[in-house]
Amino acid sequence: MQKGEPAWNKGMKGYTNSGSFKKCQKSTYGNLGKKRSEEAIIKAKNSNKGFKHSEESKEKCRLSKLGDKNPQYGKIRSEEHCLKISKALKLNHPLRGKKIPEEWRKKLGVSRKGKTYEEIMGIENSQKLKAQLSKSMSLSKNHQWRGGISFLPYSFEFNDDFKDTIRNRDGFKCVKCNLTQEQNKELFNQSLNVHHIDYNKTNTSSDNCCSLCLRCHIETNSNREQWIIFFHSLLNNRYGYIYNTKDIIKIMEKGV
Questions:
Q1: Which candidate, 35, 34, 32, 31, places its Cα nearest to that of 17?
Q2: What is the DSSP secondary structure assignment for residue 25, as one 8-state letter?
Q3: Mutual orientation of helices 224-239 and 245-254 as an angle, nearest 10°?
Q4: Which distant-in-sequence residues (6+ apart) come within 8 Å of 92 by Cβ?
Q5: What pLDDT was estimated at residue 38?
Q6: How far apart are CA 21 and CA 158, in angstroms?
Q7: How far is Cα 100 from Cα 39, in angstroms, rounded to an integer?
Q8: Cβ density class 193-206: b for 16+ within 10 Å, e for less
Q9: Chain segment 130-166, per-residue pLDDT in tens
Q10: Domain ranges of the chain
Q11: Cis-peptide into 101, omega within 30 deg
């Protein structure tokens, strides 16, 4: 049969197009094309009611579909195909619009009791779920949001993601003494501090922040003008940031 030609058995009774039968071989399904009565359907449902496969049988079934024996092995579904499957599952889910029975809830609770997300879902899926939950409950999306007062006296931008970005830029080392983040945790039980160079806690930008260990961060509380000049010079040499140090020191001297 050439490409584009109709199947040899199209429209013929007693034959199948599934590919499981050879040419001129009739289907062995005696009820092919026939409708069963309600009584027959109920009998078929009840015939295997309560039947359970043995552990040996389950293992044989598992091995028969393992790896390259699985018909879906190595196949990559297109994005369009995945969306269609997702939509179909949502619309046709057997529990759509229904409440999960109490018995099921108890079984789920017992099976997951004392286990972490990683143990239940796997490391990769648990990380994705945690990231989604964190994003869905951040800032104004959280029911306990109070306009950002918890950030004060810092700005909204001065969050964990920004701090990690600064630490990563500085190689997870104190820019003054080169103490690593691991060493800082061992000594002071905390990650590297992120210091605002001009001491303005609302001026949260990459060129105004640097990583410091706790000891060096405490040192910057005095002689602030000198530390501004020091860090501006250091970050200028290391990252090429351009500063107007004199104007910042004048503002600090005026107390503005």
A1: 32
A2: P
A3: 160
A4: none
A5: 87
A6: 68
A7: 29
A8: bbbbbbbeeebbee
A9: 888 888 877 677 776 666 555 567 787 888 899 999 9
A10: 150-254
A11: no
